Automatic annotation (TrEMBL):
Chief place where the protein resides: cytoplasm
Gene (name only): zapA
Origin species: Clostridium putrefaciens
A cellular-component GO term for this protein: cell septum
Name of this protein: Cell division protein ZapA
Stated role: Activator of cell division through the inhibition of FtsZ GTPase activity, therefore promoting FtsZ assembly into bundles of protofilaments necessary for the formation of the division Z ring. It is recruited early at mid-cell but it is not essential for cell division.
Amino acid sequence: MNVITIKISGIDYNLKGEESEEYLNEVASYVDKKLKSLMDNNKKLSVSSASVLTAMNVVDDVFKSQSKLLSLTENISKLEQRELELTDQLEVLKKQLIHMENYNDELKSKITYLESETNEKTDQEEVIKLQDQNKVFEESGKAYLKENRELKVDNKELKFQLQSAKYKLIDMQHRLLENQIDLVKIKKEKNPLIVDKAK
């Protein structure tokens, strides 16, 4: 456990913490700046009153950070769910595309067979009919391929948004932790059992 002496509003305090000295000094500096800012804006404030207002500001920051954290977590869950849905749709489209390609191959085989068997009118009509069906299925296959490509693009964009949201979530967690440490520091200032004035 690290023990360091910090100065807030001109008063030295002994501070104990598991974090590094650099981090503890950074927290103390943050609290000191907030406290000085309040006192500079209102010269009539006592250190005690300014400390309470500083604590209120830090708690307000913590609550807002928690709200943003919750919102980001919900957004990430929605993005992950959407990604799963798109993945499922892609799998369904792949299966449909394979089925369409197989059916198309069957139609091509029938056309080839009929063309080689005879040139009679009835067979020619069947060939034309099968060719028309083949065109329809080829168009359907193209539509499926296009939808498949679009879903892949959507999926890629969602993955990017999901990664971006995760980075924002990590940043919000860091800010939340900083605000919570500020709050603990302010509480320690007011509680002589936790923080003693340096002798």
